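User: Can you help me understand a structure? I only have the sequence.
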Amino acid sequence: MLHMLRVNTPEEEANSIKQQQQQQQKQQQQQQQQQQQQQQQQSPQQCQAQHQQPQQQPQEQQQQRQAQHQQPQQQQQQQQQQQQQQQQQQQQQQQQQQQQQTFVLLEVFIEKVLKKGFLFFQNLRNFAAETLRVPNPFVARVCLQLVR
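Assistant: Let's start by predicting it. Here is the structure, written out as tokens:
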């Protein structure tokens, strides 16, 4: 027995794909905005820390400046790595969704082919049965051989 599946029409599939893409774009934009806000919040704090320090020992100030210059670079590298990981995850999700959609389309295609094939043979059998009623024995024999 074939199990009947509810399959989306091509329009519904296209709409769902568009919605998924729009959601992913919104998520990416929100993540970028959050990262920009974090960067903007961190940079004024570093400047304030530099202005508040007393200028007693020039060596300490140089070391602190170097450390502060290194911190943003490390943060940027971490953010870039996070973005790359997120992009990889999104690509994997898109590939999985595409595979699922192709499997669903294949199932629908196979079901349609099987139904049409079944209907074809059923019609052929009915045609043969009707031709048996006709007194022409040659046509009846040919139809019987086709059905077998």
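Now, to help you interpret it: Helices lie at 10-52, 58-133, 137-147. The radius of gyration is 35 Å. Let me know which part you'd like to focus on.
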